[in-house]
Structure formats: structure tokens, C-alpha cells
Amino acid sequence: MAAKSLPKISLIGSGKVGTSLARALHEKGYPIISIINRTGTSAIALAKIVKCKKVSTYVNDVDKTSDIILIAVSDDALQHVAEELSKVKLLQFKKLFIVHTSGVHSSDVLRSAQRKHALTASIHPIQTFPEGRKSVSLRGIYFGIEGSPDALKKAELLVNSLDAHTVTISAELKPLYHIACVFSSSYLVAVINGISGIASTLKLKASWTEVFGPLMTSAMENTIKTSAANAITGPVIRGDMSTLSLHLTTLARTAPQFLPMYSVAGIEVARIATEHGKMSRQDYQNIITLFKQFIKSYPEPKKKS
Length: 305
Fold this sequence. Notes:
Layout: E1 9-12, H1 16-27, E2 32-36, H2 40-50, E3 55-56, E4 68-71, H3 75-86, E5 97-100, H4 111-114, E6 119-125, E7 142-147, H5 149-160, E8 165-168, H6 174-199, H7 208-225, H8 228-231, H9 235-238, H10 241-254, H11 259-275, H12 281-294
Helix pairs in contact: 10-12, 11-12
């Protein structure tokens, strides 16, 4: 397909997600014809990269010849931006495809544009966008997409053109889908950080990744290849109350910041074990009672110098 026949795209929001999408689309030949962002500096910087000539801090300045408007703003700002966009005169809403990148919200948040007969969808990249990275590769990842049948067709074409894949999520399940994304990213990072933090006090001769990496990898592989019920091991599933008590009192003394996470994770392991007949109801209740004594400990975060 010739570059000139590709839809013209306007971007609202030039944060990490918007920047990565704009750069990826530009590399595939999509014309980025306007960039709107509340911070002009970041919009200007992105505009130089994607050769966009129109930059503004006002939604009303979005290019009126846009075929696709991509909204990549914070979840809290999304509805307001959609409402402002619906007020823009001369936009041909009946020919317009408007998409947002929120993981938790459905396309219903764009109802103000829907009322003007714009086609709307949500396309959420299942990828992490860490600080310090100017852009993140989208090649080969999945996007969670949601919308009407016609909107899904357009969303799939757009995502596939970036050499990425799609999974369709229903509107009512978007929040649950987003929870899975949170577990897959920040919550997983929190657990790994716990391993790193505790290992830092052990004065290991090797790096913590070398020492605990094989155990972490094995646990993940076993879970993926079999199931969580088959992969869990340790004192919880054995109902070893004395070991668990020692763990909890040691954490309370040496690393209290990890007590809540250890306790919540322990309760979840106990739930999985009990549901799969690997632990008695009485052992489950005993363990829950023990963890509840410690889970209330929430030490104040220490500010890093």
C-alpha cells in the first residue's frame, strides 16, 4: 500500500504510550498531521521525529482533515478530552475513527463522539513503558482491542500494520483485563523487588539474579506448563506453622516493608492449595489467622537519598 493512501492520523497526548505509537506509525508510513498535548515541549520534540507540522496545546486545534484520532492521555483525563474533541467544528465525525489507548476504559468513554456518529474503539498495548525510555518497541506484542464489529475491523488493521497482534476484550471485561495487565507488570515487579531487597541483606558472593534466577525461572515454567496448583511449594502448602511464624517474625525485625506482600501472597498460595485438595480447611484457617496478625503492618516508605 502506498504511503499516500494511508489514513492521516492526529495524536492527542504525547506521553510514553503516545510517543511510541506515533513513532511506530510514522515508521510504517502513516502521516502524523497534528499532535496535541498539554505540554508543548514534549509535543514539539515528538513532532520533529515524526515530521508533523502542526503542534498545539489545545484540542480544538486538531487537524480537521484527520482520518484517525488517537487519544493517548491519562485515564482520568480521557472523558474530558473526548468531550472537548466532540465540540471541535469542521471535524467530519461520520468519517472519523477515534481510538483511545486506556487499558481499563472501554470505547463507551468516547460516547460524546459516538453521538456525532464517529466510529470509536479502544486499543491498549500490552507492554510496559518504563521511565527513561524514549520509545518502546511494539513489534510482536499484543493489543487488547474493544469496540463495535466495524470498529474492531479497523482497530485490527491498524494494529496489524505495526506488526503486532490483537485480542478482543468485551467492554464489561475491560477492568478485569486491565487487572491481568497490572499483575503481569507492576505486581510482578513488586515480587521481584522483594527478592532483590531481601537478597541485598544476605551478603551473597554472587548476584541475586544468579542465585535465585533458576528458582524463579523454574517456578514460572512449571506454572505455565502445568498449573499454579502443581507449581506451588514451600511451607504454606506443607502447613508448616513454625517456619511461617519464623519467616514473619524475621521479616518484622529485618525487612518489615515486605510483610504485607509476603502475607497476601501466602494467603493466595493457601487458597490455591485448599481449592485443589492439597491443604485441609483447618490448616487453611490456621494459616490465615497467622498471616492476619502480620498483614496489618504497613511501615512508612523510606525516601531514597
